[in-house]
Amino acid sequence: MTFLYISEILISLALLWKGSDWLVERAVRIADWMGVSQLVIGLTIVAFGTSAPEFAVTVGAALSGQANISISNVIGSNIYNLGFIMGSVAMIRAVGADRKLIFRDGSILIICSLSLLLFLFDLHLSRIEGFILFIGLLVYNYFLIHRKEKVEIKTEKSDNIVMDWLMLILGLILVILGGTLLRMGAVGVARKIGISDWVIGVTLIAGGTSAPEFATSLMASYRGHHGISAGNLIGSCIFNIMGVLGVAGLLRPMSVSQDARSNTLMMFGILVISLIFFRTGWKMSRAEGVILVILSIIFWIIIL
How many CA atoms lie within 13 A of 221 on its CB side? Predict the structure, then answer.
């Protein structure tokens, strides 16, 4: 039985990786066809695409009554995105940022993170709170798209927009299937060795569902597309809280472990540190990346 769970995890990671790869590649082409800026691409379409695994796992867990896995997956993914992934990418190549990303989008992420901390203070996420989060995402994205910022770069021009849409949908299907298998396999293995649902979600599942963000931001940074690299991680975190938890809360009210309070505080703390690092010189240096990775490892040790 344990072999079956491990097989599910391995297959799910392959599906998540390939599905997200197709989803992101086609989403960027479609965004370029629509005339959207590099930063907005990173904050919206790319961020939503790479957050599809979190969406699949979190909503699936919520519908299955696994509230601890549902919410801890989002909190763990955000810690992973802002700490380990952001730090690892910066360690390989310094990541640049502009004023809009730090002051506009960073402020939005701070507000929604504080809102989540407030909502989870009673260890319960209600439908009303889920509705508030989801409406916040709609307003934020309407503002981004409505601004129609100037396009700084051009990606490979789409020669078949219909095929791009079909491949995007296929990628999304693979991601959802992969997310379901990952949740089933990870929960099965962890319960065999006596690990709680909260720890399962905030570590193992969070790391697995954040794999697409890691690959996308690393490649974007390597190619010098800092708007996509940093915007993807900030946008994913915003989408995880307001979109993923918003929908999950709307579908089913959830009660969680008391670990939610301390872990959400950790998430908020690493967010503030990341934004401070970006503000110093308008980039995250290799040394600052090392600090973030070390902080992430310390947080995982504390959680475990």
Answer: 28
